[in-house]
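Researcher: Good morning. I'm working through a list of sequences from a screen, and I'd like to move beyond sequence-only analysis. For each chain I'm collecting a predicted structure so we can compare shapes side by side. This is the next one on the list. No need for commentary yet; just the structure.
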Amino acid sequence: MERNEMIFGIRAVIEAVEAGKDIDKILIKKDLQSDLAQELFAAVRGRNIVVQKVPIEKINRMSRKNHQGVLAFISAVTYQHLDDIVPGLYEEGKNPFIILLDGITDVRNFGAIARTCECAGVNAIVIPERGSVSVNADAVKTSAGALLHLPVCRESSVFEAVRFLKNSGFRTIAASEKAVVNYTDIDYTVPVAIVMGAEDTGVSKEVLCLCDDMVALPQMGVIGSLNVSVAAGVMMYEVVRQRMGNCK
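Model: Good morning. Structure tokens for this chain:
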């Protein structure tokens, strides 16, 4: 994380929150109990900001400044929300295409996926508030700047995001190596949302159960799974292929 993305000190973080800065997350020393700390807790309450209580050693490793047990990280982009984006897509007459990332924590994979999303005409990427990558300088760099042009929605959970999209007329599709349906056997010419999961755990069970379809990419080798950014790219360009063919 670059130094200019970090705010340290309780009062400085409170001021950043109250000024409406796009804060990715705040790290707070576990046993922080001062009156000023309570003011910080009150300031972030009800806002879409991830707050993590961590050992002081973790904060000390990130900054040697007088941080007072509090560090905030500024997002490289302004996070958006699906309930703001989706109605606009329909109003503009677009055929929406959304990618959701469930439990993906590797910033390089995130950046690579975002780069492909931008090239493939994806309308937005969805990440959850917790247990996920975030948009930092490394992610923007890995995406070749795509994250500066592509809306990123940070929602309370992937499950709730999928449910919202289903209710908004999307066909929701989870990619899973356990699926028996080939990814090419699905109709992607309708409004579609594709969920990609972490390489080690895949898409969570609750999200798999909620999605309309579960599909797999065929594998001929002995390795258990594809890199998630590669798999996401294959899925996205099947959408592109079908939609381009549908326009002829």
